[in-house]
Design brief:
single chain; about 650 residues; mainly beta; two-stranded antiparallel sheet; about 45% strand
Length: about 650
């Protein structure tokens, strides 16, 4: 029996291996390691026929999950040498990594149909169709790609004991992150044309075969250093400070992902209501439409959407620095106060660059480059800053009791937080671009990861009761109770709309804004005074605001409401574990373990729905994190 909408099975094979060799000399130790990992997964339904259906007003799309195969192999070699020379411990070494990826090994899919509302869906009236086709024939096609990427890292570090009270470390690291090479030479991306500025070069750009997606940077030298001072020489008062720079590899799926690009395949778009094509043929199975077979233009265009990489892509990096003071309190307690900061530079973003505000006001979608639809551009352009203060008190295990409590007060700003979907289970904004690609400054706001207040604690208690009875002593002692508890501020979220221009959304009429997942992304004007405030749990359940609270901007204009203006529900958690081991002779033991997650069954709500195009759920938290879960276990050790 075949079921429409069936997600299909998951079939996976996973393997790994490690080999190491360590050689010890008088003052030198060399450690060499080789490892490999292989993954092969097949997901989806091999008999899939139902296209993806997206309806404005519904929170989730539906349809078959088409079969897709992914193959990954990684080979890695590391070597580290440590040399002791008086007060110096010098370490140096390197690593080499070769990554192979086989992506989109799959049959053609049925594409996507977009509907403005449920009425249009009931009457089979989609306003947009997206389908990956061979541009010469118009027939659906696949686009498997087999990539190889090489990465190299070298480092040297000196840990210097300057005096019994003073120590320092200094180091330098070098990284090379190679660009993806396709096994069969099938690489396509954007080639900018001539022009006096960025937009004129984009207007004359082409999608075509390229020798390489970008030229990797080769001067990625990253210094770092730190210092520690023991004021009294006995560990009762220690001060530490340091900082460094760290380069990060490119986001693998964004940069080295399979692309449906000319001349092999295009993700074509038909949208007659804005002048793209004349007719959408809707049905299941999806009927052939000759309008997809117009053939690629000289620039590779049949109004396709493309996922392309900036040929001038730079290596992203972070600069971090810290300082803290640790003080022994009483006989066994330790208190610590610290400051930590991180600045992200040249971080990656994905955005539809082929759009401009007011494009749709004349009833047509022209785009900056009329040969193409949305061009999802992987580039630099994200900068972030994080500053945090930490306060901690801890007591190491003494007389069967230990405790550690930590409070963090922080602020995290950026102009984009997520290049792909799935960072959080309650993510209210999965993989969106900027509201206006020419005004990235309007995106600067609290990060999706910003949690101003976070309190965590951990307690371990292993009682030892002084009872006289040997039987009672055996029964009562040997238990261990541990608990981890936490409380934190809610995460920020934006109010936005995923509706098209024709459905009353896309306020600036640029035809896009939704990045990885496609669609639209626009924010409204700011609401009246009093809407932006704190909310109770009951208000999140019943709805913290209404669609009518947010005025629509003038057609063709950007909304005045900022990004991540609101903050979601606070979260609380408490996990407890009770364990006890029973000896079974000299070599065996039976361990009993009881665990309770979210012990007090506290309801921690997920972020509310913040899409204006879904009025029934807008402003409401309709899901929550896991309720209380209890599990028991026995483990035999021998």
């Amino acid at each position: 029996m075949k079921i429409r909408g069936s997600r299909g099975a998951f079939d996976g094979a996973f393997g790994n291996g490690n080999l190491g060799y360590t050689k010890v000399y008088t003052r030198l130790v060399n450690d060499a390691r080789f490892s490999f990992q292989t993954i092969k997964t097949i997901t989806g339904n091999p008999d899939a026929v139902v296209p993806e259906i997206a309806i404005t007003g519904l929170a989730a799309n539906f349809g078959d999950v088409f079969q897709n195969e992914t193959r990954l192999r990684t080979y890695e070699f590391r070597n580290t040498t440590s040399y002791q020379s008086g007060p110096h411990l010098i370490r140096f070494g390197g690593e080499y990594r070769h990554i192979f990826k086989g992506l989109s090994i799959a049959p053609p899919t049925a594409g996507t149909f977009n509907f403005n509302n449920l009425t249009d869906f009931a009457n089979d009236r989609p306003f947009r169709q997206t389908l990956t086709v061979n541009p010469s024939t118009g027939q659906p096609t696949n686009f498997p790609r087999y990539f190889g990427v090489k990465e190299i890292g070298l480092f040297v570090q000196d840990d210097w004991r300057i005096s019994p009270k003073l120590g320092a470390n200094m180091g330098l690291r070098y990284n090379y992150f190679g660009d993806p090479q396709e096994r069969n030479g099938i690489l396509s991306s954007i080639v900018f044309g001539q022009g006096n500025n960025y937009f004129s070069r984009l207007a004359n750009a082409s999608l075509t075969r390229v020798e390489r997606l970008y030229r990797p940077q080769r001067l990625n030298f990253a210094p770092r250093g730190g210092i520690a001072y023991d004021h009294n020489g006995d560990g009762t008062l220690v001060m530490r400070a340091g900082g460094g720079l760290a380069y990060q590899p490119h986001h693998g799926q964004s940069v080295g992902g399979a692309r449906a690009l000319p001349p092999d395949a295009v993700q074509g778009i038909l949208q007659p209501n804005v002048g793209i094509g004349t007719n959408i043929r809707y049905g299941i199975p999806v009927p052939f439409n000759p309008e997809f077979s117009t053939g690629a233009s000289a620039r590779g265009g049949v109004r396709p959407t493309g996922f392309v990489v900036n040929p001038d892509l730079k290596t992203q990096y972070t600069i971090n620095w810290f300082a803290n003071i640790q003080r022994r309190l009483f006989s066994s307690w330790v208190g610590e106060i610290g400051y930590v900061a991180t600045r992200g530079v040249n971080l990656e973003r994905i955005d539809d660059i082929n759009r401009f505000a007011g494009d749709l006001l004349d009833g047509r979608e022209d785009r900056i480059n009329p040969s193409f639809g949305p061009l999802l551009f992987v580039s630099n352009g994200v900068n972030s800053s994080y500053h945090g203060m930490t306060f901690e008190v801890r007591r190491p295990m003494t007389h069967g009791f230990s405790l550690q409590v930590n409070y963090r007060w922080s602020k995290w700003l950026d102009n984009s937080s997520d290049t792909s979907t799935g960072q959080f289970a309650d993510n209210a904004e999965p993989g969106k671009g900027a509201q206006d690609v020419s005004r990235l400054d309007l995106e600067r706001a609290r990060s999706m990861f910003d949690i101003p207040h976070r309190f965590t604690g951990m307690v371990i208690w292993a009682p030892s009761l002084g009872v006289s009875s040997k039987w009672m002593k055996q029964l009562a002692n040997g238990w261990q109770v541990s608990t981890i508890f936490g409380a934190q501020s809610g995460r920020p979220f934006s109010v936005w709309t995923n509706a098209s221009f024709q459905a009353g959304g896309d306020f600036n009429a640029d035809g896009g804004g939704g990045a990885v997942g496609g669609g639209f992304y626009d924010r409204p004007d700011a609401p009246a005074s009093g809407v932006i405030r704190g909310y109770s749990k009951q208000e999140f359940l019943s709805g913290i605001f209404q669609v009518s609270d947010f005025p629509k901007p003038a057609r063709g204009s950007n909304g005045a409401l900022g990004r991540n203006t609101f903050r979601g529900p606070r979260q609380f958690t408490n996990d407890v574990a009770v364990t006890r081991s029973f000896r079974l002779g000299e070599k065996r033991a039976l361990q009993f373990r009881a665990e309770a997650f979210n012990l007090f069954n506290t309801v921690s709500l997920a972020l509310p729905n913040s899409d204006l195009s879904i009025p029934g759920a807008f402003g409401k938290s309709t899901t929550a994190f896991d309720p209380r879960q209890i599990q028991l276990g026995l483990r035999l050790q021998f």
